Structure formats: structure tokens, C-alpha cells
Amino acid sequence: MRELKLIEGREAPIYFAESTDSTNTRLKELARQGAPHGAVAAALEQTGGKGRLGRRFTSPPGGLYLSILWRPDCSPEKAARLSCAGALAACAAIEESCGLSPDIKWPNDLMLNGKKISGILTEAAWQKEGGWVIVGTGINVNTESFPPQLQSIASSLYLETGKGYELEKLMAAFVENLDRVYAGWGEDGGAFIEEYRRRCITPGRDILIDHEGSRVKVRALSVEEDYSLLIQWPDGKRERKSFGEIFQLV
Questions:
Q1: Closest C-alpha among 20, 14, 16 to residue 46
Q2: Which of 90, 118, 220, 222 is least surrounded by Cβ atoms within 10 Å, i.e. has the fewest?
Q3: Are 30 and 38 in contact (CB under 8 A)?
Q4: Signed CA dihedral, 31, 34, 36, 40: sign only
Q5: pLDDT in tens, 29-44
Q6: What are the tens digits of pLDDT across the range 59-78?
Q7: How many Å separate Cα 96 from the centre of its chain?
């Protein structure tokens, strides 16, 4: 990867490659070597993109794949909420550079016209002297097609609008918004909770979640102050989910 001077005056480096195995993997290596807070690894294609729970993340040419390294001064539990910060920054960047307004499906998937256009994978490591968090985001920008099994659930900005978008412009806007959101995030992200709630389309709908190996339909009620999702089980019991995966909005 080569260093890219994309944003004037930004001190943390931005490393770029046309294609790489995984921007998260590359940035983890740099983090272990002492890369500074705010370092970025970006690419236009991933050959070994990673999703949640060890899944493969489809990363064809035409997308923007970007990971940022943060070294937060807070507990691992609070640092986990930074995946929501990544989702907010991605939404703002797409609005600014592409004129589109994605929704957020809790906790951090970006949706456009009911289809997923972006996913986020957050990885972290904590030691006695502190920790680091890598927020990796894949945005389907100019992607022209997807495998048959994904066509009903995934899309791109191009497929939804019929227009191509300037990837470097989006990359710059995304990095700038990641810096902006992190700078104001604080210990718990409270400054952004109302913006997150405004963008999140999950509350008020029935959703399918994983429960003991099965998919169960529950009601999503609200996003709480700590970015957890308050759900109601069929028997009326209420519970907060701090992490997890929503398989479907009903």
C-alpha cells in the first residue's frame, strides 16, 4: 500500500491500494507496528474481505473499502459503540459527496431503497497499556452486479440510481467525517445519539434475530442511550441487545 495525500493538513497517514486482501488485516499489521491514531487503509477491491462471525465479505471492484484505526481512552465496552460512529460517518459522506441519504439498520448496516449498500466490521485489541479499535467499512458504490444469492438483499449506489460516483471524492468525505464524528464522540457517543436515532429504521418494526441457534421474530422498540436495541419478545418480556445481528426487517 502507498501513502495517499488526500486531505490537506491531516497528520495521520492514509494508505491506499487498488486491490488488497483486507483493509482490516492490513491496518491490524500497521497497528501492531505502532501506526498512529487515525491511520487509514483503503482499497477499491478486496480479495479476502471479512464480515461478521468469520464470514466472507463480497468485495468486488467498484466499491470503496476503508478501515480506520482509533486508540480510544475508554473501556472496551464503550469502544464497541464506535461501529455506530462509523455508520454515521458513512451516511454523512454519502450525503455530502453523492446526494443520497442512506438509512441505518441497527447496529451498523447502511440501507438504500431497502437493500444493503454498506457493512461494517469492528475489530479491537486491548492490553494493559491501552487498546485500539479498527472500524472497517465496505461501501458498494459503482458495483454493477452481485452473485445471485445476494441480488435480492444487496445493491450499490450505481444500481439504485443509474449513476456512477467519484470514489476519491467519497473517500475524502468519509475520512473527514470519521475524524469529525470521533472528535465529538466522547466516552459514550451521547452527542450523536439523536442523529443515530433519526437515521435508524429498525425501531417500530418486527425483526428476525438469532436465539439459541434459531431465528425468532421480536419487536424492535427503540434505540437506547447506549446504542443498544430495546426489543420485546412474543411473551411481552423486554430486553436490551447490545450487539447481534438482524437477519430481516419484517
A1: 20
A2: 222
A3: no
A4: negative
A5: 999 999 999 999 999 9
A6: 677 899 999 999 998 888 88
A7: 17
